[in-house]
Amino acid sequence: MAGRIPQQFIDDLLNRVDIVEVIDSRVPLKKKGKEYSACCPFHSEKTPSFTVSQNKQFYHCFGCKANGSAIGFLMEYEHLSFPDAIEELARSQGIEVPYEGGQRPDPVAKKAQTDLYDLMHETDQFYQKQLRQHEQAQTAIDYLKNRGLSGEVAKDFGIGFAPDGWDNLIKALGNTPEREKALVTTGMLIKKDTGKCYDRFRDRIMFPIRDRRGRCIAFGGRILPKDQPNEKDAKYLNSPETPLFHKGRELYGLYEARQALRDIPRLMVVEGYMDVVALAQFDVRYAVATLGTATTADHLQRLFQLTSEVVFCFDGDRAGKDAAWRALQMCLPEMRDGRETRFM
Question: What are phi and psi of 309, to 5 degrees?
Answer without folding.
Answer: -130, 125
